[in-house]
Specification:
8 helices, alpha+beta, single chain, eight-stranded mixed beta sheet, globular, 38 strands
């Protein structure tokens, strides 16, 4: 070999080595600076391909590259994939790069955390998850994950919501669908103004969406749920297969029929239980009282235990089995209650609901499997009762914010349909207080107050009804906002009423209730139900804001002043009205007694961004009114 050829080989080898040494992947310096604004993480690339081969074979192919900028974005770098016996997960690559794009770590299969999912209340479950936590202490860093999820049939497909959290920007994100053998899907697009869409991309891909250079979204006070204003692509099947059963999701009626076929033969009860139930309701005069008696039996004799094995995520345990073991999940307990009512001749309906205070709403014209809970609907002659069957303490007919005021799917043979659960209004959601305050010459006070919580405000103290007095006092000391309070006694009791309500009675000694300055006392106008903060101001509000709860608070307070003092300053009453509610209070003196009456009413609703400044001003005016001081002067 000549020296010339030898040198040429060295140059080629050195060039290759140099190129390899300088090779970098997704360096942070490549990120457009504008995408770093308000960002804790940046999605460098997200590619999802949904391949539908048949109703029994579905695959997701995913590649995600995310740069974590700081510790607040740490969760964005964690890979978490749930799975069960109906799907397999194959993580093909998991890599961590530093800010320059140099390799830090490549995860081996043995380093991937794979564990059974434990939620604390599921007795039987085949749910598992795979998780990778980078555990990198130097920011920024970048993770890259490639994986596939293969399903042996699905009831529904994953939605694509590329902007799924606040403070996360996106360089590139795409979602594609490949349909094989004439398979069909239904698609619903929402808020896609910033999305680039393509159809019939090539022979293999029928649909594709892309999002590029999306700035991070800041969380604003009183924000509506993020899914309401970001791009979302919902995909749903027409026909589907799941654990050996076939169904049709093209209409609510057809989907309800599939559910009906899973539950129709599950209501058989032992003969002795049927005789017991008939005896239980024999003395009741009307259907409503019979339902109440059986519901009371359900609450006293059963407990909630989740069962999520295979099709058990949709199919309940039989009523006979629940009667034997005395437990079940929402599906099983609703079915058991349905069976017991059927045994005494009362018709009821298994009803699917998407539960949760901020749960996504069911879209009437887009049938899909967006339900996560089951309740029971019992039609009566004059009304319809809905029963929550998993709560041993819930008042009869009370759904609460978990399932009230939303569309639900009533399952009925050949006639399943959407209906709406009851809504609680301002007149239902009440706080009514009656307060007596006796002030002594040292500024200390004895406070006795009685508060009735009703409607959705009942939920604020529902847990207290099951606690001891010692636990209740401990909670007041932790969470109460009366400085210097010593709780001598607290009593909670549930009230029997059409709208659920409960009463709290307290006896409190309050040291330095009135602040002393020289020969004067400064005393708060409102101590029991005081507005304690105001919303954060926003110069450039971007998105709508929401008040979730309509309610009315009414406070009546009598204050007995100590001898030897006179009123130097007494705030005048005020009235404030706006689109967001109304507020008023009056304060009058009669000898050594003061009488304070306050009413605060808040309107639930979604309001446009331009109204936010007025909302802040309204809430500030209430805060100022609540925090005024009465001044007493020593004679």
């Amino acid at each position: 070999m000549s020296l010339k050829h030898y040198l040429l080989i060295l140059i080629i080898l050195w060039s290759g080595f140099s190129l390899h040494a300088k090779e970098s992947f997704y360096p942070v310096s490549d990120i457009n600076p504008i995408l770093l604004l308000n960002s804790n993480a940046v999605v460098r690339e997200s590619k999802i391909l949904l391949e539908i081969y048949s109703t029994k074979k579905v695959s997701y192919k995913v590649k995600e590259v995310i740069t974590v900028l700081n510790e607040n974005g740490e969760s964005e770098g964690v890979l978490y994939i749930p799975y069960d016996s109906n799907r397999t997960v194959n993580i093909k690559e998991a890599v961590v790069y530093d800010k320059n794009g140099s390799l830090v770590k490549k995860f081996k299969n043995t380093e991937i955390y794979d564990q059974r999912y434990f939620d604390g209340f599921s007795l039987y479950s085949d749910a598992r998850f795979k998780r990778i936590t980078p555990n990198v202490s130097t920011y920024p860093y970048t993770v890259m994950y490639e994986y596939t999820i293969d399903f042996n049939g699905v009831v529904d497909y994953y939605d694509w919501t590329p902007i799924d959290s606040y403070y996360k920007s996106i360089e590139r994100a795409s979602y594609s669908i490949s349909l094989h053998d004439d398979m069909q899907v239904r698609i619903r697009e929402n808020n896609i103004e910033s999305i680039e869409k393509n159809e019939e991309v090539d022979d293999d891909v029928q649909y594709s969406w892309q999002l590029k250079n999306q700035l991070a979204i800041e969380r604003e006070p009183y924000a509506i749920p993020i899914y309401e204003h970001v791009p979302t692509i919902s995909i749903a099947p027409t026909e589907f297969s799941y654990f050996g059963t076939d169904g049709d999701l093209s209409t609510w009626e057809s989907y309800g029929q599939w559910i009906w076929e899973l539950i129709e033969d599950k209501t058989t009860l032992p003969e002795e239980r049927i005789l017991f139930l008939k005896e239980l309701v024999k003395g009741e005069d009307n259907t409503l009282d019979k339902v109440k008696a059986i519901y009371k039996y359900l609450q006293e004799e059963t407990r909630y235990v989740s069962v999520q094995l295979g099709i058990g995520g949709f199919e309940p345990l039989s009523a006979e089995k629940v009667d034997e073991v005395k437990y079940g999940d929402c599906k099983a307990l609703v079915n058991y209650m349905r069976a017991m009512l059927e045994a005494v001749g009362i018709n009821s309906y298994y009803t699917l609901v998407n539960a949760g205070r901020t749960a996504e709403k069911i879209v009437p014209d887009f049938p899909s499997q967006d339900f996560n809970h089951v309740i029971l609907c019992v039609p009566l002659e004059s009304d319809t009762v809905f029963l929550e069957c998993t709560n041993q303490f819930s008042p009869f007919g009370f759904l609460g914010s978990f399932t009230a005021d939303r569309m639900v799917l009533l399952v009925d043979k050949d006639n399943s349909r959407l209906i709406h659960t009851p809504k609680f209004n301002t007149n239902d959601n009440l706080w009514k207080s009656s307060v007596s305050i006796v002030l002594d010459p040292q500024g200390n006070a004895v406070v006795n107050d009685t508060v009735v919580y009703s409607g959705l405000q009942y939920e604020f103290i529902e847990d207290q009804l099951r606690k001891t007095t010692e636990e209740q006092i401990e909670d007041e000391l932790k969470e109460g906002d009366i400085t210097g309070a010593v709780y001598k006694n607290i009593v909670y009791r549930s009230n029997q009423s059409e709208v659920p309500s409960a009463t709290r009675i307290r006896e409190i000694d309050v040291a330095r209730f009135a602040a002393k300055m020289g020969d004067r006392f400064f005393m708060p106008v409102n101590i029991i139900n005081q507005s304690s903060s105001t919303p954060r101001r926003e110069k450039n509000r971007t998105y709508p804001f929401r008040m979730n709860l309509s309610y009315r608070d009414i406070d009546k307070v009598e204050i007995q002043l100590p001898e030897g003092y006179e009123i130097e300053y007494l705030p005048g009453g005020t009235t404030i009205t706006s689109d967001f509610g109304s507020y008023q209070y009056s304060l009058e003196a009669n000898g050594r007694r003061l009488f304070y009456i306050r009413m605060n009413e808040i309107n639930a609703g979604t309001f446009q961004p331009e109204k936010y400044a007025a909302f802040v001003e309204y809430m500030k005016n209430i805060y100022d009114a609540d925090n005024q001081k009465i001044i007493l002067k020593k004679l």
